[in-house]
Design brief:
single chain, 31% strand, alpha+beta, four-stranded antiparallel sheet, 191 residues, Umud Fragment, subunit A, elongated
Length: 191
């Protein structure tokens, strides 16, 4: 009888270990949940929303070494991305990708211009972008460095973003926000 009890305990321990390893692999390389702490992405994301972030889409980071897995998709203007905040590596931020490496960004009269052309996509042209911060002053043209991105919060009046602290290095990007899954009344795909 005691051999049978040891077998049951061993089965439980093995199951828990396997479940833990699978959870860590999924969280590290495939998908991770994040909770939205501020209103910087209103109305797209609200404080308290819990979202799922696709980590493999841009090539997941391999822990403890400076290596990324191959990307399934390239970065696109308008993607909502989660990244390690450049000024404090202990914090993760979420913002909308506005400009890609090599592009020139300017905010003029509330409109974003990329390479001299206004962004006409409804994601961008239905919002007013304020001229704030060192990188967001009126009539200032900013060139995005190689392997970096310019990001803005959807709630321009209340967002600490690239206008203030500059660019997000590609190596800091954790993934693409894909889904709000909590609270239940807000379940939707993030656009």
């Amino acid at each position: 009888m005691s051999i049978r009890k040891k077998s049951v305990v061993r089965d439980w321990v093995e199951s828990i270990i396997v479940a833990f390893i699978l959870a860590m692999v999924i969280r590290t390389f495939i998908v991770q949940a994040f909770k939205i702490p501020t209103g910087s992405m209103r109305p797209t994301l609200l404080e308290g929303d819990i979202i799922l972030v696709n980590k493999f889409i841009y090539g997941a980071k391999v822990p403890f070494i400076d290596l990324r897995l191959p990307a399934a998709q390239q970065f696109k203007r308008g993607d909502v991305i989660v990244f390690i905040y450049p000024d404090d590596p202990k914090k993760d931020f979420i913002k909308r990708l506005v400009a890609l490496p090599g592009e020139t960004v300017e905010i003029r009269s509330g409109t974003i211009y990329i390479n001299g052309q206004p962004l006409l996509d409804p994601i961008f042209n239905q919002r007013y972008y304020y001229n704030r911060g060192e990188f967001g002053t009126e009539d200032k043209k900013i060139i995005v460095p190689k392997d970096s991105f310019f990001v803005l919060g959807d709630n321009s009046a209340s967002s600490q973003d690239s206008r203030y602290w500059g660019f997000v290095p590609r190596s800091n990007v954790l993934g693409k926000a894909i889904l709000i899954y909590w609270p239940p009344q807000r379940i939707r795909i993030i656009k």
